[in-house]
């Protein structure tokens, strides 16, 4: 959803970008990156690409928190997304580790 808001230049986002002094073309870059990152997280293959997507979202959210702190605006919503991203990443790693453990156990039986 965030990606589509960036790519369609949501008026509230345009206003926020003007307030922050960011160029509007940055909205397209972020929108495209967020959309591709979301696809990478949803597609069950390509674990390395998933790691890059998690890193990209982490950098984006850290930048968002920093921007809100620097401008004196509320960053509580961003913190919620940081927590959700962290929980998602923790569970993704647990699933990956359990798959690796199971495949290693099966391989040792054969």
Which terms summarize this structure?
110 residues; mainly alpha; elongated
Write the layout of secondary structure elements.
Elements (H helix, E strand, L loop, with lengths): L1 H6 L3 H10 L4 H18 L4 H25 L4 H34 L1
**Low-confidence residue ranges:** none
- Count all strands and give the number: 0
How far is the first residue's CA from the last residue's CA? 46 Å
> Approximately how much beta-strand content do the residues carry?
under 5%
Fraction of residues in helices? Answer: over 70%
What's this entry about, in short?
About 85% of the residues lie in helices and about 0% in strands.
Description:
With 110 residues, the protein is mostly helical. Helix content is 85%, strand content 0%. Helix 3 crosses helix 4 and helix 4 packs antiparallel against helix 5.
């Amino acid at each position: 959803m965030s990606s589509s808001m960036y790519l369609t230049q949501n008026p509230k986002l345009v206003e926020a970008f003007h307030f922050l002094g960011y160029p509007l073309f940055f909205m397209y870059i972020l929108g495209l990156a967020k959309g591709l990152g979301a696809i990478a997280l949803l597609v069950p293959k390509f674990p390395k690409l998933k790691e890059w997507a998690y890193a990209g979202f982490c950098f984006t959210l850290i930048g968002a928190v920093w921007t809100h702190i620097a401008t004196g605006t509320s960053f509580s919503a961003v913190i919620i997304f940081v927590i959700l991203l962290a929980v998602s990443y923790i569970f993704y790693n647990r699933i990956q580790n359990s798959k690796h453990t199971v495949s290693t156990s099966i391989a040792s039986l054969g």
